[in-house]
Hints:
Elements: H1 7-18, E1 26-33, E2 38-46, E3 56-58, H2 62-70, E4 74-77, H3 79-85, E5 96-104, E6 107-116, H4 124-154, H5 165-182, E7 186-193, H6 196-203, H7 205-221, E8 228-233, E9 236-242, H8 246-261, E10 265-268, E11 271-273, E12 277-284, H9 291-313, H10 333-340
Helix pairs in contact: 1-4, 6-7, 9-10
Amino acid sequence: MGTSLGVSDTMALISSKLSKIVSWSGCALFLHQPEGDSLKCRFAVGVDSPRLLNATLKVGHGLAGWVARNRRTLINGNPRVSFEAAGVSSETSLNSAIVCPLHYNDTFIGCLALYHVEANHYTEDHRRLLERIAEQAGAVIHNSIVFEQTQEDSLTDPLTGLPNRRSMFVHLSRELARAGRLKSEVAIIVMDIDGFKSINDTYGHNVGDHALREVASALQGALRPYDLCVRYAGDEFIVVLSGCGGEEAERKRVELQRAVDTLQFEARPGKMLPLAISVGASVFPHDGDTYETLLATADSRMYRDKTRRKREAGSPDHSADRSRPSAPGNVSDLDLQRAAVGVL
């Protein structure tokens, strides 16, 4: 357990087995967040406990906060204190709690809390049992945290913090299958930073990385919480918009360009550089029914937009020599798609 399961799945198994040893009406896991010296409820099940899920409390506040500060098990505390500390209504049918600290290699990682509807339900025998269980559970939960972090890292671009192309293909495949079942639409928007190579060549890759982060932040800020913005490769970004038709995709295309246009990017002290993106969009199922076709269509339209913008600006297109990081002799998926539609 814990080496191939996330925190929630691991805790679902632990809480199920725990109920046969120490009875509970509700169960919750609070994980320590060292950066803010706080605790976050990552798992909650049972009577009223789901109200605590994802709640954050400061160390020293609530029952779990007391245990985090004192590193000792607390027996028959009042669950209402935990609800109040979490900022939710303290009205609950739970009347007793036992909260035990969790450690891994002498490092405090969080608290395991059990609640019961009976007052004064827990005894010293329960404390001894839970502390023995916690010795094993601490290592298992630590492994599940590491597993989740590894999974997240494999799906995240380390420079911008956005999802990466692997994450996009997983998400896009799921959204296209869903849209096919529901007869709905999905829009894909492909974007490329204008003149990015000249920024790297003139000011260095550190400045180029800064520009990428600024653009990523601007794009993310212009999207709905459930939209997906991906750093695809180099200076290229892709957005997936579920339930989005052609007209809405066009409005979003213009909005994203304006969001980048308004950036104030300082390449070096006192030297402000304009940033801009070329954008192309395609919509499922009108422009294709596979992600390869949709990406190729959006990419072709993005290049037409780049050509138009270059012509209107009357300046050379510095991004002709693209900065996509490809190994020698290795052609990317999107390059193959570009070749298929005759844009290379």
